[in-house]
Amino acid sequence: MKTLLKDYWLVWRMALSARSRADVLILGFTAFLTLLVAFLVMVTKDDAVLAASTALRVAVGGAMMGWLLYFVPGAVKLNTPSVACLVPRLRRRLIESTVLAWACMIAFATLVSLGTKLSPALVLLATGTWLAAYGLGQSGHRGGSWMQVAFAGVFFFSRSLPPALVEGIQHGIGFAIACLLMLAFGAYALQHMFMAGGDRHYVAREAQALQLERTTAAGQFKERKQNRFDASLYRWVLARDTAARNSARLLVHLLGARNHWVNRAVVLVSILALAGVALFIMRANARPDTQQLIANLGWLFALPLLLGAVFDTEKRNVRLKDTAGEQALLRLAPPLPAGASAFNRKVAVTLLRTALLEWAMLAGAVLCLGMMTGASAANLFKQACLCCLTLPLVAATLRDHAHRSGLLGWRLLLGCALSFGASLAVGVALERASGLPYAAGAALASMAIAAVLVARAFRRAEAAPYAFPAGRLA
Amino acid sequence: MTNAIIQSAAISKQFGSVPILNRLDWQVMPGQVIGLLGRNGAGKSTLLECLLGLREADAGTVHVYGEDVAHLSDAARARIGYVPQKSDLFEWMTPRQMLAYFRALYPRWNGAKVDGLLARWGFDQLMQNKPISKLSGGEQQRLSIIRALAHDPELLVLDEPVSALDPVGRREFLRELIDGVIERGTTVVFSTHILSDLERVALDLAFLKDGRIALQGRLDELLEGARRVVGPASLLDGRQLAGELRRQRTADGSVSVITHGGAGLAQLGKESGLRVEALSLEDLFIEVTQ
Lengths: 474, 290
Hints:
The structure holds two protein chains of two kinds.
Chain A: H1 2-16, H2 22-45, H3 48-78, H4 81-86, H5 90-113, H6 120-138, H7 142-156, H8 163-168, H9 172-193, H10 199-212, H11 228-244, H12 247-252, H13 261-285, H14 288-297, H15 307-322, H16 324-331, H17 340-372, H18 377-388, H19 410-434, H20 438-463
Helix pairs in contact in A: 1-3, 1-5, 2-3, 3-5, 5-6, 6-7, 6-9, 13-17, 15-17, 17-18, 17-20, 18-20, 19-20
Chain B: E1 6-15, E2 18-28, E3 33-37, H1 44-51, E4 59-64, E5 67-68, H2 74-78, E6 80-83, H3 95-105, H4 111-120, H5 125-128, H6 137-149, E7 155-159, H7 167-181, E8 187-191, H8 195-201, E9 204-209, E10 212-218, H9 219-225, E11 226-231, H10 233-236, E12 244-249, E13 255-260, H11 265-270, E14 275-278, H12 281-289
Parallel strand pairs in B: 3-8, 3-9, 6-7, 7-8
Antiparallel strand pairs in B: 1-2, 1-4, 4-5, 9-10, 11-13, 11-14, 12-13
Helix pairs in contact in B: 4-6
């Protein structure tokens, strides 16, 4: 028994050590969440006992879930083909530990739901299924990731589910069948998460590595594998650009296949298509007041897509650092201009053009989503103005790449916050002074900020040493 | 004014506080085939990168084909082929796509040579359409070499080109280097640790030590001229030998002196208690770079 417990403890610590400072992060986040919930309950209900009991549940549940979310990926990572085949007991202990952790989490969630409006049976089924889907997703199985999305969809559209089905799976034979299905799914997930070596394991390991090690040792995002459609589209674009022998267009390929603007366009079109279908279903099933709510506020939900502008900027910066080796070859290629200034100008123009194009695509997608929600012209105008607030981000692509490369991180976020704040302040001031709507004023201010930043960054880039290979002077 | 293809004068480079190149003077003449030798971390890659303008030297000047390396013209760049130590080859592309990409960038491209090398070096249709990231290290290195040779460069710079190749791959590469490159009069500078390959290919050797070229010469002359004189300390201490490169005391108390091109060594060998030995390339590498 002692050996068994020692094994579990060892597995637990090893899995958690795959992420540095996991304990601190989990405890810190749980403490924050607990205090926040306690405060909110106290403010809204003015009931100290209720606040304390809710906080306790959040604390225990948050900590358990936190550790579980860290443990599962760590455990999957530990189960390499060689470990699975050669290290005695380890694979078995990993499976047992995961099952134990899942069981504890399901039991806790079910217990907590007792005495609330939630159905304990549904909570049990939902927690179990979600945990298995999460584990499957963490093991690099696409089905797991899609299951999590579908799970969110079911949660969101729960009112649209047939009441008989919802009622049926909570009691008797329906509940038993649902439990069996959940267990079967859990077993399948475990089998995929902890393979026992062999070719399949080696193949799955690649997907797992991408899923579990999203960043390189330098903290940069790894490139994900292209699907067949993306790959064939990229093949066509590359063939077209090489046939044209246009050095600027060829330079864009340095950002990689997944970050080429054509693939970004495909991603946005896919998002629009999915959102379109979801909105159609939602509007078809919703009550008139809900439909009105979607039309009035739905456009706001399109705005998070603008975060894509931040991610795109960072991805470009990261790719420029990652491809320093390829850049050395390009530096020696004849058609690129001689002299650091001319060379950097060419690089800067190419990157700026790409950044503007991607920003325009993103803004277009946001507006399309707004239109799909049935937003009014006034709201669409506001949405367009808000899109302009992210325009200054295009300047972040123009840098002294030789000295500074890779993620901008908090500097980019701080810059965004300052730019947003300044633009909104100008917008409000202009509205008071001239009656111009604040959103339009803020958009104009953002465009002016973008122009100033781009001009300044351009001058700096021209005066900098050769941009390629990026990061060599850092 | 010389007609050197690469002319570097007093180049220095340091990373942080660590000096790598120390006022290094070097020149590479047309048609020379130079093997650059040095221990790990001696700065061979840094030197090659500085010579091609891929890294800025902290001090000194580099001219390639008479042009400042920071402002190389299109024509000059079209004459250079480079194989980096790590074959960074647009790994999201397939070999076929990558070669088409570079064909679009170079004014001259020897398609027949590329096809021939691909066929000879085992790149069948399947492999040519596989993402480069899926190729093994050796296959990527071969592809990197094919890319560098494709535009028939007049100056070929290779940074440890055979480090990831198996013996068969190395032999094929060396055959190509001798038959297809060196015999065409191409100037070649390459760094390697595999001394047996150097002996087959290089006509000249340059040893990099302490940020400078410590010794350079024709391979046969270096091997003919290099000698190790071993004897008791009583005979060698305080006695400066002609062409002396290095001197050390061995564990048994005797003294070993490495000389190069020193006159009178034959005479020295006749002295009682002294022994004069020829050096292999490996011995020479160890003695010069230690």
